[in-house]
Write a structure and sequence with these properties.
Layout: H1 2-15, H2 18-24, H3 29-50, H4 59-85, H5 88-94, H6 98-110, H7 116-135, H8 140-163, H9 169-194, H10 204-231, H11 234-240, H12 243-256, H13 264-299
Helix pairs in contact: 1-10, 1-12, 2-5, 3-4, 3-9, 3-10, 4-5, 4-8, 4-9, 5-8, 5-12, 6-7, 6-8, 6-11, 7-13
């Protein structure tokens, strides 16, 4: 449990850099994601085939994982669109609503009862986003894409958690990332028609940052997050990712001086969103202590 928790937060730390890298890479959102998943999927196939970690799975599981991969790609595209239309800070903070969407969707998909505390904590995040959205009208398009990204980000961990209970993490990630590149490639003509781009070939600097994004922030981070997802609920994992905006926003302030573009409403909303994470962490710790006490009483 402790090792999974540590890996989860390393994954969150790496995820905090994705927004920064999205700003540093000059490509538009769709092209950026296409290169990211192309490199990452190639790495997964080579790495796990070499380590003999890939299992033979059913066609039904392959189709499901390809679908999950397509949803993952759409999540990344909308996330980087949020950054391009607003800025890194806004795009990252919108991802904090993933916890709210997960609290609503996970019980529906897994056919379990909704947990009132999770829904309330999710609503707290939504209130924070509303405060930012209501007062900072210049960010509305970016926030819209950010909320779409958060909704999609809530979906694929739920389905992945169900899948990796039956197959190993390496196989699940490899086919998921294959779905990312297939889905992005098939939808690429549509995206380019909607939002034409004058640059599709990365520059030398773009290639460097794309390798960092694909290898560290995708291959390594996704392996660690899947280890955690196998031990914790999808809600716990996604709410832990609320720390991602903390790391990303601080980096954006330092690297891009974004503080000058953000009004007081951003910081009020940001504080409300972060309070949901603190409350959830305290509740988890309390529940862990309670479970240990129950286990001790049973064995005594």
């Amino acid at each position: 449990m402790k090792q999974a928790f540590i890996k989860l937060h390393i994954a969150v730390l790496l995820a905090g850099f994705t927004g920064i890298l999205g700003r540093l890479i000059s490509l538009e959102a769709v092209a950026l994601v296409w290169y990211r998943v192309l490199i990452a999927s190639a790495c997964f196939w080579v790495l796990f085939a070499w380590r003999r970690k890939l299992q033979k799975i059913s066609n039904a599981d392959i189709v499901k994982l390809l679908g999950i991969g397509t949803v993952t790609a759409l999540h990344w595209i909308s996330f980087y669109a949020s950054i391009k239309f607003a800025n890194v800070s806004v795009g990252l903070v919108c991802l904090s609503c993933t916890g709210f969407f997960t609290a609503l969707l996970e019980p529906l998909i897994t056919r379990k009862k909704h947990r009132l505390t999770e829904v309330l904590l999710g609503v707290l995040s939504i209130i924070g986003i509303y405060i930012i959205f209501h007062f900072d009208s210049s960010f509305r398009l970016g926030i819209t894409f950010g909320l779409i990204s958060a909704f999609l980000a809530a979906l694929f961990p739920i389905f992945m958690r169900q899948t990796i209970q039956r197959i190993n993490i390496e196989t699940g990630l490899t086919w998921q990332m294959t779905g990312c590149i297939l889905g992005t490639t098939l939808l690429l003509p549509l995206f380019l028609q909607i939002a034409p781009t004058t640059q599709f070939v990365p520059s030398t600097a773009d290639w460097f940052w794309l390798l960092v994004l694909a290898i560290l922030c995708t291959v390594v981070a996704m392996q660690f997050s899947m280890v955690a997802l196998k031990r914790f609920s999808a809600f716990t994992v996604t709410l832990s990712y609320n720390l991602e905006p903390v790391y990303g926003v601080l980096l954006a302030f330092f690297m891009f001086n974004e503080m000058e573009d953000l009004g007081p409403s951003f910081f009020v909303g940001f504080a409300i969103i972060m309070s949901s994470l603190v409350i959830h962490t305290l509740l988890l710790r309390r529940q862990t202590v309670k479970n240990k006490q129950v286990a001790a009483d049973i064995t005594s």
